Amino acid sequence: MPDAVMEIEPGFYHGVIDAYLASIWGQDAEKLMIIGHNPTCDELARYLTAPDSPAAEKLMAHHFGTATLAIFECEIDKWSELGQGSGNLIQLLRPKELSDT
Predict the structure, then answer these.
(1) What is the 3-state secondary structure (H, E, C) of the chain?
(2) What CATH code is carried by the domain that includes residue 80?
(3) pLDDT tens, N- to C-terminus, the chain (101 residues)
(4) What is the C-alpha radius of gyration for the chain, rounded to an integer number of angstroms?
(5) How far is CA 16 from CA 12, 26, 40, 58, 73, in A?
(6) Number of domains in the chain
(7) Residues with Cβ < 8 Å from 56, sequence gap 6 or more?
(8) 2 in a structural domain
């Protein structure tokens, strides 16, 4: 990704969900990768997940542990449209589920 840009948001370390959402809503990129801390990442994933998402049941049944990756598809035109239940949680991966290769 030669045109990828990394931004560091100092407020994420002790941030609340509103800080994460405000940062997301201000983006103009086509795709985002958010790296943060719990409990906020867990709260954000649960907030964004549409109930009929393929991985929704897995998220609701387990804690969003350290190094968990949530992959969402969002049918929105701009990030400011992202809201509660607007994310289709495609996959939820935990480190122990990854192979050693």
Answers:
(1) CCCCCCCCCHHHCCCCHHHHHHHHHCCCCCCCCCCCCCCHHHHHHHHHECCCCCCHHHHHHCCCCCCCEEEEECCCCCHHHCCCCCEEEEEEECHHHCCCC
(2) 3.40.50.1240
(3) 567 888 888 888 888 999 999 999 999 999 999 998 889 999 999 999 999 999 999 999 888 888 999 999 999 999 999 999 999 999 999 888 887 65
(4) 14
(5) 7, 16, 6, 23, 22
(6) 1
(7) 49, 50, 89
(8) no
